[in-house]
Amino acid sequence: MATNHQTHRLDAARRETFTRASLRQLRDSGRIPAVIYGANTEPLPLHVDFKELAKISRTGRAEVFELKLDSGETYPVLIKEIQQRAGKVVHVDFQQVSKNKPIRVKVPLNLTGTAQGTKVGGVLQMQSTELEVEGLPDDLPAEIDVDISHLGTGDKLTAADVTLPAGVTLVGAEEELLASIVLPRVAEADLTSPDAAEETEPADEK
């Protein structure tokens, strides 16, 4: 399984003006308006560099990182929501977390190996690409590696089959289906034949 992530840092600056013109000017200069939400603080408006934000967001929303303000204050946060408009990021919400309190996050699954069933014509179907877990921020992995090489045709991968790091627990049901190996659907060409049509055509009602 993946090792726990290392702490990254994102620099931010307080936002002093809130007009549409000022927001547009920020975005035109490569900055993204943002807000920090937390149990111990009032919502704090700020702005961050788009390129640096993109680097952080690629690791997924289970990634806890340090948000450092230009005033010197530092907050451990998660990405709560990224708002987009016409395919462009226009705003981001950060959630402040306490390193001493467990939090719930959805961690991406990284499937490793080649399922045995796919070697004999089976198809891998993913029902979920992430798993909701709970743990202290420092214990949460950036992703969870899951070896699927043992899966044969007809086999299923459930949440119970995933080995979690120490200190991390499953939030949802153990029966939650994550992936399965199924045979390709039989082509429906035979249904177009006259015999098949007769067999599938309902009898006349009398």
TrEMBL record:
The keyword Flavoprotein does not apply. GO terms for molecular function: 5S rRNA binding; structural constituent of ribosome. Keywords: Ribonucleoprotein, Ribosomal protein, RNA-binding, rRNA-binding. GO terms for cellular component: cytosolic large ribosomal subunit. Residues 10-94 form the Large ribosomal subunit protein bL25 L25 domain. The keyword Ribosomal protein applies. PANTHER family: RIBOSOMAL PROTEIN L25/GLN-TRNA SYNTHETASE, ANTI-CODON-BINDING DOMAIN-CONTAINING PROTEIN, RIBOSOMAL PROTEIN L25_GLN-TRNA SYNTHETASE, ANTI-CODON-BINDING DOMAIN-CONTAINING PROTEIN. This is one of the proteins that binds to the 5S RNA in the ribosome where it forms part of the central protuberance. Part of the 50S ribosomal subunit; part of the 5S rRNA/L5/L18/L25 subcomplex. Contacts the 5S rRNA. Binds to the 5S rRNA independently of L5 and L18. Belongs to the bacterial ribosomal protein bL25 family. CTC subfamily. This is Large ribosomal subunit protein bL25. It comes from Paenibacillus faecis.
